[in-house]
Amino acid sequence: MFEQDYIMRQIKEITAVIAKVVFNAKVDKSFETLQEVEKQKAYTLIEQMNNGQIKEAVEELEKLTEENTIENLMIGLSFYSHLSDLDEEQFELAAYTFAQGRRDFERFANKFGWKGVTDLYFGNDDD
Are 61 and 74 in contact (CB under 8 A)? Predict the structure, then answer.
């Protein structure tokens, strides 16, 4: 549990660095650069996740990111940043696991050519 909490904090920090480097913006400010339609998509996914429908939200994000745009990348980074805020009980209630989150994020990152970023976020899978 402690190790997963630490890794989730690392995810948030790395997301902040990526947002700063790629978008020249703080994570909290990243939504300001999105158009209203993209903001609504992100909020809908996050709300779905908060309501215990993590798998469904991930599926929607998968569909959304079939188009590799900067906006969709920002939506996904925000989504996974919020996912990292969920506690173990919320994961259990949604029948979702940390390992699933790792695989889902890896698939997301690979869509944008960020192979290997998952290891930065979640650590080496071989550990």
Answer: no
Say which residue the tokens 């900067």 belong to. 70
Per DSSP, the three-state class of 110 is helix
The residue with tokens 């609504």 is 40
Please write the tens of the pLDDT for every residue from 87-101.
889 989 999 988 898
Residue carrying the six token digits 């998952």: 118
Is 57 in contact with 45 (CB distance < 8 Å)? yes
Residue with tokens 């919320």: 90
Residue type at 7 in one-letter notation: I
pLDDT tens, residue by residue, 30-63: 445 556 667 788 889 999 999 999 999 999 999 9
Q: How many residues does the chain have?
A: 127
